[in-house]
Design a protein that fits this description.
The structure is a single chain. The protein is α+β, with helices and mostly antiparallel strands and about 950 residues long. Helix content is about 45%, strand content about 20%. The strands form 6 sheets. Strands 7, 8, 9, 10, 11, 12 and 13 form a 7-stranded antiparallel sheet that branches. Strands 3-2-1-6-5-4 form a 6-stranded antiparallel sheet, with helices on both faces. Strands 21-20-19-24-23-22 form a 6-stranded antiparallel sheet. Helix 7 (about 230-245) runs antiparallel to helix 9 (about 340-385) and helix 9 (about 340-385) packs antiparallel against helix 10 (about 390-405).
Length: about 950
């Protein structure tokens, strides 16, 4: 391999190693071929120059088995070599530091100039090292090779060793090959970057053309829409959206200019984030917009204006919209100073000119629409007048039609003397019947001519009412004239100053004159309808008197009739108590009258008879301005109260109408309510008499039913007692007759048996009599209270009934009882109580059945339960079984005997111990009797529970 090395001296020549042996040469050639293959594959996948250089340097150092190296590229314009890749250096990073060296000096300069590799064996002593900072690196040997492409040297590839070594000729040849390959890769990467930049520039041009086409399409669509719409907010929405997109501004604002007031008003504002401020003609003090309109020229200014949508804007461009009678400006707001290109300026100027034309067209359209609206309103008002609406409803309908038809901020109608608000539409909510004492409507009524104020703030005649004062800017007050008579005033407001003109005044005057005639006819109709309503109400009250009805129904009928006739907020009747100190509301219609349920008489009136105006209605027109002895809800502003008098001229109550509005009632209302009160007084007396007779009749019926029930009870008791006594007495009489019959021979033993049977039957009769007497004795007898051991008590009861249970093969089971558990009571009475319950359970249990007796404690009480498997008791009769002489089956053919006294005695004993007893049962499922008795003292508070309850939890 022939290598032409540039040698500066003999020492440089000695830096090259000896030629390799044949075997070493073969190995080095294989390694070189492999390295070149890997290098080619590595750099061919990289598209950027820096990526190619770093990958190539890394592969070169690995192939030469050295740790450090660098690549510099030649800048042909400056003739400087710049470090672009570096690896393995210990001190400096020339790439990050941006180090450049002259291309005609030093070792690298030799490589660039000659196009041949250069090597050195001793960096420290080599005078060709011209970069002083490089000497800080502990490099001992270095070799440099050119990087060629298309016949030019593009840069230098350097390999460095920190150990003394001599680079062989094969390594030099390999470095040259690698350098040339890197040069080709760098050249390709540069060509790719150049092509990529050319494509980027081309794409920018195409993007600009596309944007220009999009802007033109947007401008065309916007102009077409503005030319075709008759809705100002819709036109402004399209205008601001188009301007925002064309200008790329932060915010776009459209302002209107009024030359007469020299003011700008906001039409629409649209922010780039989508937030918007819709049509609002409130004053807007932007001097730049006004200047642009006056000068008819585009202006721009670096300012920081105040305003909700311009608070973050530092630069504004104002584009005027100028036409004969429709002027304004488009404001473009930016956060930084911006220079628009000529095409954008042209597009925006065209947009502004077309917007001015659209505004002028809308103005002309509005004039024609106003004429059509006037004709339509006259027609609609006439239609409303013949619909036979209530007067108040008609007024509200009329002002609403005017306000909506002309697009006004507020329309108010005042009528009467003094001028009182009767209807209002638009503006803030307001109640009717507000009296005004100053302002343009007062002057219009006095002068009997329409008055115009196009700027309320600067007009001393104006005093806008509270419901429009915050927004109203212009006002027209038009009197409603019928000949020389002023029936009212129509007050119209706009939130735009200087918006009304002579045509508006003329239109409203004509409309007001026609409205005056319509309202007068409506008033006549209302009066006639009112008279008919009064007659109907009085008829209803009279009809209520003629029918026998309950007092509540009569009172409710009267209040409903009066309420329907006068339609107040509330109507109620309050009746006087027996002591004549308290009025209680007995019937009410309208809003909630819970605050009126009890009306106490004022302290200064000891008797309601001393109240003034006894024979005529008490009419309070304004509760806030007049004193009144009764306390009403604070919302009540006016009322009429009429005293209800009996036939003896005694006050029995009051009839009251209330309203939230002052001056709501008239003299006609007084006349109606006075007549209704007179009729109501008669109706109340008649209803009370009817109720008294009805109550007396109910008392007689109740007494009759009680007597009938007592008679039935007496018959049942007599029947049961006779049934129970007849059987033993029949036995006694039969055997006595047998003993007295001389014809019958009776032996001594037989005689003895007969006497024993007579004795038993006699004892049964005595027992029945004692049970009857015992009911009252147990209630009246004194109890001997002492602690009674429950176990001993129940053992005694079981002993008494042992034989009786055995005869029916009934098993009585007694649960385990807490030792020494005691009941505080009379032992004999308690034995009788338990014995009667157990006797009842045995009687009604089937042969071979079971009876369970349970005991438990509940706080300081002892709870006894007796459960059987008997026939059961119907639920509807459980509450009666503890009544004296009551039997579930009291028919003469009943299966079980008895007088119905045993359970009555149980209840009397339990109550005497301050305890209680109840039963639970299902027919066919047996019964359970519960007894609750004091475990300590007899003062347990259980008597509040009825003793016949079916379940204590109920």
């Amino acid at each position: 391999m022939n290598l032409n090395l540039q040698l500066a001296d003999e020492e440089s020549y000695q830096a090259l190693g000896e030629p390799s042996t044949i075997e070493q040469a073969v190995q080095q050639r294989d390694r070189a071929l492999n390295a070149l293959s890997v290098m080619a594959e590595a750099v061919s996948t990289q598209l950027s120059v820096d990526a190619v250089l770093h990958k190539a340097l890394e592969q070169t150092l690995a192939t030469l088995e050295v740790k450090a190296g660098a690549i510099t590229l030649l800048n042909e314009q400056t003739n400087m070599l710049q470090f672009r890749a570096q690896q393995g250096w210990q001190v400096h990073n020339f790439v990050q530091e941006g180090i450049c060296v002259p291309a005609d000096k030093g070792m690298s300069g030799i490589v660039i100039r000659t196009g041949k590799p250069v090597a050195t064996a001793n960096v420290d002593q080599d005078r060709r090292i011209i970069v002083d900072a490089f000497r800080d690196e502990p490099v001992k040997a270095m070799i440099m090779a050119p990087m060629r492409a298309r016949g030019r040297v593009l840069g230098v590839l350097s390999a460095m060793s920190y150990q003394p070594r001599r680079f062989t000729q094969d390594e030099v040849a390999l470095l040259i090959a690698i350098g040339n390959q890197i040069g080709v890769a760098v050249d390709n990467a540069r060509l790719y970057e150049q092509e990529h930049e050319r494509l980027r520039i081309t794409e920018l041009h195409l993007s600009a053309e596309r944007r220009r086409a999009e802007d033109m399409a947007l401008l065309r669509d916007t102009l077409v829409h503005m030319a075709g719409t008759n809705d100002l907010p819709d036109m402004l929405e399209y205008l601001t959206q188009a301007a925002l997109k064309l200008s790329q501004a932060t915010v776009v604002e459209v302002d209107f200019y009024a030359a007469t007031s020299n003011r700008m008003t906001l039409g629409m504002a649209l922010h780039e984030n989508g937030s918007r401020r819709p049509l609002c003609t409130a004053p807007h003090r932007n001097s730049l917009a006004a200047e642009a309109v006056k000068q008819k020229h585009i202006l721009q200014r670096a300012v920081n204006p105040e305003g909700e949508y311009l608070s973050n804007i530092e630069f504004i461009i104002a584009m005027p919209m100028v036409q004969k009678n429709a002027n304004g400006a488009i404001l473009l707001g930016y956060q930084t100073e911006t220079e628009l290109d000529q095409q954008t300026y042209s597009s925006l100027q065209l947009l502004a000119d077309q917007a001015a034309l659209a505004l002028e067209r809308l103005r002309l359209y509005a004039q024609e629409r106003r004429k059509a609206t006037y004709l339509m309103l006259v027609n609609r008002i006439s239609q409303a007048a013949v619909e036979k609406l209530r007067h108040e409803t008609l007024l509200v309908r009329i002002v609403s039609l005017i306000q909506q038809g002309f697009g006004l901020f507020n329309v108010s109608l005042y009528m009467g003397t003094p001028l009182t608000l009767k209807a209002s539409s638009g503006g803030d909510p307001v109640t009717s019947n507000v009296i005004i004492k100053r302002g343009l409507p007062i002057l219009a009524a006095q002068e009997k001519r329409p008055l115009l104020a196009n700027n309320i703030e600067d007009d001393e005649r104006c005093e806008a009412p509270p419901w429009v004062a915050e927004h109203a800017q212009a006002e027209i007050a038009v009197p409603l004239l019928n000949g020389e008579k002023v029936n009212g005033v129509l007050d119209l407001f706009s939130i735009d100053p200087y918006i009304f003109d002579a045509m508006d005044v003329e239109t409203m005057s004509t409309l007001a004159n026609q409205l005056a005639v319509i309202l007068e006819n409506g008033e006549l109709y209302t009066q006639m309808k009112r008279q008919l309503t009064e007659l109907a109400a009085l008829y209803e009250v009279t009809r209520a008197i003629a029918q026998p009805m309950k007092l509540e129904a009569v009172l409710q009928g009267i209040t409903s009739s009066v309420y329907a006739a006068l339609e107040p907020d509330a109507c109620f009747i309050a009746l006087l108590d027996k002591n004549k100190k308290l009025l209680t509301v007995r019937a009410a219609v309208g809003e909630s009258t819970h605050w009126q349920k009890c009306i106490k008489l004022p302290k200064e009136y000891k008797n309601i008879d001393t109240l003034p105006q006894k024979n005529r209605p008490i009419h309070i027109t304004d509760m806030q301005a007049e004193s009144f002895p009764f306390e009403f809800n604070a919302s009540v502003r006016s009322l009429i109260m009429v005293l209800l008098l009996s036939s003896q001229e005694e006050i029995i109550g009051v009839l009251v109408l209330t309203s939230h509005n002052p001056h709501n009632f008239s003299g006609d209302d007084e006349r109606l309510i006075a007549g209704a009160a007179s009729q109501a007084s008669v109706a109340i007396e008649k209803a009370r008499l009817y109720e008294h007779l009805a109550q007396h009749n109910r008392s007689l019926n109740h007494a009759y039913e009680e007597l009938k029930e007592l008679t039935n009870t007496k018959d049942t008791i007599v029947q049961n007692i006779s049934h129970e006594l007849r059987t033993p007495l029949t036995y006694i009489k039969g055997y006595i007759d047998l003993l007295g019959d001389q014809a019958v021979s009776i032996s001594a033993p037989e005689s003895q048996q007969i006497m024993e049977l007579i004795t038993r039957k006699t004892e049964e009769v005595i027992k029945i009599v004692n049970e009857i007497v015992a009911v009252d004795e147990y209630a009246a007898a004194e109890l001997n209270h002492e602690p009674v051991v429950v176990q001993a008590l129940l053992d005694k009861v079981l002993e008494i009934h042992q034989e009786e249970a055995a005869q029916k093969s009934i098993i009585i089971q007694l649960q385990a009882i807490v030792p020494d558990l005691k009941i505080y009571g009379d032992q004999e009475r308690l034995i009788q109580l338990c014995s009667n319950i157990l006797d009842n359970a045995i009687k009604f249990s089937p042969d071979g059945g079971n009876i369970w007796i349970g005991v438990k404690t509940e706080q300081t009480l002892v709870h006894l339960t007796f459960r059987d498997q008997g026939i059961g008791i119907p639920r509807n009769q459980l509450k009666n079984i503890f009544e004296t002489f009551y039997q579930v089956d009291s028919s003469p053919t009943r299966r079980f005997g008895g007088l119905g006294i045993g359970l009555a005695v149980v209840r009397r004993i339990a109550e005497a111990h301050k305890g209680m007893v109840w039963a639970e049962s299902e027919v066919g499922q047996g019964s359970t009797f519960h007894v609750l008795l004091p475990g300590t003292t007899p003062s347990i508070a259980c008597e509040s529970q009825p003793s016949w309850q079916t379940s204590r939890k109920e």
